[in-house]
Write a structure and sequence with these properties.
single chain, 94 residues, alpha+beta, 5-stranded antiparallel sheet, 2 helices, DUF2849
Amino acid sequence: MTRIALPAVVTANDLLTGDAIWLTPGGNWSRALADAELLSEPARAQARLAQAAARPDRVVAPYLAAVRPGAFGPRPVEFRERVRARGPARPAEG
């Protein structure tokens, strides 16, 4: 079993749009990291990841991402997750 940095959230990419999405406490997917379920127990984190992996018709490459609790929901620890949480880059207008 892989060592998990906790707390964490389950994240993946939406199969149809490619958008970054996060698993919510209700088992739905959201494009807002603030909606993500904060996982603090290794067994629960592994179980939620397994549930996500069982949905290849909905998501691509689910994994656990380390976060910090924040006043407005989980905050990403790693640079990659901070970029994903901001959403797709938009070209400059001009």
